Here is the input.
Amino acid sequence: MDVDEGSGLRDSTEAHRIPRRSRWHEAIHQFKQQTLPACKPVLTPKWVITTFLLMGVIFIPVGLITLRASRSVVEIVDRYDSECIPEEYKSNKMAYIKDSSIPKNCSRFLKVYRRMKAPIYIYYQLDNYYQNHRRYVKSKSEQQLLHGLKFNATSTCKPQESNNGRPVVPCGLIAWSLFNDTYAFIRGRSELKVNRNNIAWKSDRDHKFGKHVYPFNFQNGTLIGGGNLDLSIPLSDQEDLIVWMRTAALPSFRKLYGRIEEDLDADDVVVVKLMNNYNTYSFGGKKKLVLSTSSWLGGKNDFLGVAYLFVGSSCIFISIVFLLLHMKSQRSP
Amino acid sequence: MTTGDPLLSLGDRSSFDRPSIGSTYATSASSLLEDSEYCLTRTSDVNDSEEATRSVGDTNCLEKPPSKFSTCRASRKHFSSAESQFFSQFPLEFPIPDRRRLVTWGAMELQNFNSDSAAFEISRATTPEQEKLSKSQRVCHKSVQFEDNQLHGKSPRLIYIDDPRRTNDKYEFTGNEIRTSKYTLITFLPKNIFIQFHRVAYLYFLGIAALNQLPPLAVFGRAASLIPLLLVLSVTAIKDGYEDWRRHRSDQHENNRDALVLQSGKYLAKKWKNIQAGEVVKICAEETIPCDMVLLGTSDSSGIAYIQTMNLDGESNLKTRYARQEVASAVSEGCEISGLIRCEQPNRNIYEFHANMEFQGNKFPLSQSNIVLRGCQLKNTDWVIGVVVYAGQETKAMLNSAASPSKRSRLEGYMNRETIWLSVFLFVMCFVVSLGMGLWLIRHKDQLDTLPYYRKIYFNKGRDNGKKYKYYGIPLEILFSFLSSIIVFQIMIPISLYITMELVRLGQTFFMIEDKHMFDSSSGSGFQCRSLNINEDLGQIRYIFSDKTGTLTENKMEFQRASVNGINYGTSLPVADPLHEKNVAGLGKRKWKLKSEIAVDSDLVELLHRDSSGDERIAPHEFFLTLAACNTVIPTIDQDTSSSCTESELHDKVETISYQGESPDEQALVAAASAYGYTLFERTSGHIVIDVNGENLRLDVLGLHEFDSVRKRMSVVIRFPNNAVKVLVKGADTSMFSILADSGMDDHVRSATQKHLSEYSSQGLRTLVVAARDLTGEELQQWQYMYEDASTSLTDRAIKLRQTAGSIECKLKLLGATAIEDKLQDGVPEAIECLRQAGIKVWVLTGDKQETAISIGVSCKLLTADMQQIIINGNSEDECRNLLVEAKAKYGIKSPTKQNHSLKWKKNAENDYLEVPGSAKSFSVQQWYAGKKGVTATTAPLALIIDGNSLVYILEKDLESELFDLAISCRVVLCCRVAPLQKAGIVDLIKTRTEDLTLAIGDGANDVSMIQMADVGVGICGQEGRQAVMASDFAMGQFRFLKRLLLVHGHWNYQRIGYLILYNFYRNAVFVLMLFWYILCTAFSTTSALTDWSSVLYSVIYTSVPTIVVGIMDQDLSHRTLLKYPRLYGAGHRHEAYNLQLFWITMIDTLWQSLVIFYIPVLTYKESTIDIWSMGSLWTVAVVILVNMHLAMDIQRWVVVTHVAVWGSIVITYGCVLILDSFPMFPNYWTVYHLVKSPKYWLTILLITIVALLPRFLFKVVQEIFCPSDIQIAREAEVLSKQDEI
Here is the structure.
């Protein structure tokens, strides 16, 4: 009944007749007849249980290590946008932030709860700020950042591409809305030294921002969006700008401000002298200052560790369930 | 009338006035004769008159009242007087009543016959008619077909023989250059693009690309958005271009062939493409005819030429064509040929040709028999000379070359249904985005002016100050947001799937073609895929409609048994045993060698060579003489040069003889006669020469009554050298026994023969009865007188000829009967059994008679002993209804659907039954069931046997549903005596009433309509030419390959394509959903974190190759297992690989996976410094790895190629990302290099992959362990047993 058997027989006789077919021809033949040597995985209980067990065995240690790394990070977060408004302006934050005659300086006290080893990263965090808005993300000119005034086709920068008939360098909403709060840290009596260099990606500094491009006609409009730039420094050295222009992925984001290269001991109190310049009040954005150490995994985030632990333990659980079921079914028949 | 008209009539008159009165008379007389002949043949042949209907339609003659033959004459009169009207009148002769009779069903023809007619009629003799019928009717369905002719039908085409310049002077007929290619270099681009945009999918693409060009919407870079469309277009264009290039090449080859053309008095070689209408061309034997030509002369003095029309209509037999005697004689005398041919405008009808010819002052009509068509081959004739009338594109062959209609696979239909669901999802997502956008805008209305990340107003010192920037009011912004989200989510509708599927099918086709198990080494024909769209339908076939002759059987007729003088011979044929060899040697020196050896019955041979001259020997002698003489077979002799030396040493001269004829039965009979020593080796129109055991016997053929479907017999009147005259008759048993002589002595022979006949018939053999009688001088004279009168008669010639035949075909002496076997093909019973186990219903539709059909059914295991046979052959509507209802009642079959309707019908039917008197009861349901009668009715499988006659009533009337209910509850259905269109009708019956897929398999032109009607048409490259193959979707050499095609390739293809569709839906949806979740985090602003290029390349490069490879190469089970357990085919019937439930499961899985892939990175990188491009890069890589791992998890057979494709595409993705991140002008510059440095990135990707796939994996495991499907069980068994072996 099985015709195939016969033909298989024919195959073997053929093979006898031509005993030495080259391997390549053999492979081609098998390919055409769809009989190439193949691995056919089958989900046997044994295989499944082993797989789950293996996954659990790998995931749980990874989770533990990850969680440990995350836990080792010391992070101090301080929201200051609402605190740094004088009492009389609490009801009218806009008036406060828009009036340039009012001094914007403000002091915050941060208590270090655990010893922080250098380098301590200083971040500012903005919430509810859609740096990923389509209008915003596109509102810059890569070419202009690299070539400066030589490059004129800056229509992507609208509505911030020119002022008074002259082009703006750097153009676009991103640059225009440059964050301009500043922080100074004092521990005890001495000011902590903040390293503000190398906060941006080297690749950006070297290849995306021109070494001979200087700000021009910047922040000269009727509406000031944010920080100003030193006209004498080329863009490639304006690291705050470079950091700011790497637009964030999510509406709540941190950006690197600088590094404190001294250790902070537990129970140290750090006084932050900050200039509360940046206007997030108009849209209800929050501003936070973050001091954080770093592990091999980056900042403090327990999610990864917890997730790995959870997945790992569920895998173990599943494998045990399957094992029990398998044993039961083996016993019963 | 066109402009050519005045000229024509002028020319006519001048030419007509010139000849003398006598010659004028002769002309009109001869033309009269010719045309009335024409009338007669038309009326006698119902089928042909159907074609006439068409040609009449062409020439606007329908307005004229039909008065049968008087019209004929009337037109003749017109002809001689008013020349110019000739062409409008000419086809008038066809009587309209005949046309009316032929309604839609070709089978009405069968009404004329008795329901059980002779075996002879089944044979090839009817087939050409049926073929014609099927063709003509098919043609009729196409309304466009002949409208061009209707427009130009009136003006004839003038061909001046051997004067191409004059011929082409005014009209510029096309040259003989043919062009099957679609494009030229210049028209390629616009035309190809135009054709491609006929696809809706491409228009969708174009629409999206156009949307993207709008300034407020430019979501992607403008160029990037066009890339997929351009890619798809260019791939298709390259494919089309390549195909067209091949066509160009074959055209060129065709056009550059040489033919001998009369040039300045000599026949010189000329390229085909340079041949012009009006030129005289000489064709030698075996050559292909380059254009449609009217024959002027042939090597045969009587002007006969034989052609094979295989390329045209698929009939492999030889056809005779004639040169007009007048011209032929002139040609043979070497006169210069010049004359004028008026013929109709080019049309597609290959069975009709109307023209007249003016030659040496004479004028005579030309018809179909005078023309040879392009593509035919000249056979058995040394040379012919003809004048070109139609060349190149205007030839009938070219006008007929139409591609078979394209079919759509069932799965693709389902896929389109789910695509609608996907568009609903798309719409919902876009709606959510635009709604969110609207709400967000309203909430932030007051801040929008100054919002740093929105800022809609210019705050510049300058003229723009205070103007709004890209803000059109909230309603318009909502609209734009909707549109731009469509752009972003566009790949939710998997356009690329169409391309992928095409490529996958191409690959599958490759493997089907290369499968050596489907290669027919005997004929050297491999498997062919002619349609690329329905590979997966092969996995879901529920009904197979099979032709019998040539499909189940070999269509090689073999003479098996003979009953001579009441004695049965050939019961035990020796198979080349030495004794037999001696016997043959004893025959004396055989001069003739047949192409194929035939086993002979030694007793009979002995009897023939016994020297007794008694009655004992006379009967067999006459029997074989009749077989050798009473036929229309043409012998051809090849000098045997290459055969083995030993044999030629033994015999002085061995000549190989082969027989060409219209019917394979006749060929078999003649060959058999030759094997018994009666070799027909020469035939001319006047005599035949038969070699009787070494003596040449020259017989004068006085007259020949050809086979016709009313008489069902043929006869020849032959004068022996001793002046004795005999009439030799052979025919169907039913028609023969009634005309035998009534003498008491023969009664014994008669009953014995009848017994033998029924025995042969029950063995599935085709039977013929042979008889003869001597004619007395008186009878001969009377017959000769009648015959002459009849054959020269102008009216009712067919009837008169029939009467003449009847006058001598009586009081015959029974000589015996023959039985011819139509051998079953190899492996047919096994294949059918296997298909049946696979849950496929095999129906056989055949033109054979009932007994033959049943016996074939038994021998190919279609009918088994435990079956109850329901036989329906009614002769009226009521009868059929009763039979159906009775059968249904008996076996308790209820209409599953439309219960009300059928109940009503049942009542009606019952009433009718009461009214109909007992006569109907004679047709009552018969049944045989191993002795028992209908007791176990419900359990025993049923077999329905129905004949074409009943089908006429059933299919024409409202009984269709009754038949359907009955038929689908039967395991086997056998339809006998069905016409080609009825075959299609039965296929249609199933197709319209069920969702099940149908497959039709056949080899002949009579199966074409069925093949085209069925969901899948399979052609057998067999004896009957290529017509069926041309119309089919798949073609192969043997019926048994069907088993492998369906059970193995069909199964694989179905599983592959089903998975491919689901996977592609998933692949695109998971990507789109991922984008969607992100957009919800960007204030609904349709930002994509992925770069434009990544979005575009995702479905084009990153994930395309593995799907294609898996779609082509993955197999769930090995072919061995699939063939071993045919039941596994049921997976296709149950729609296991693709159904709505699976779709929804996949979509839920997709939702989960998209949430995982979105939220894990978001949570991991929460409140971090990650920028949008890094996040995008992570997502790109994660989604590619995820979908590839998903695929990897589902792959069931890992071969090297699969490994390369799956892992390779992940590597390639990384490569692309690295490259894209290395250009400083892109905003994503260097991101991936930063990312890969952090372990967080890798941990995130690993987590995404595992968490996303975990539920699916779990689902798979649970399903496989706790409720495995058949396939999974078989797979486990297969793999584990193999492992054990190792």
Q: What stands out?
A: The first helix of chain B runs from residue 5 to 17. The CA atoms of residues 542 and 996 of chain B lie 6 Å apart.
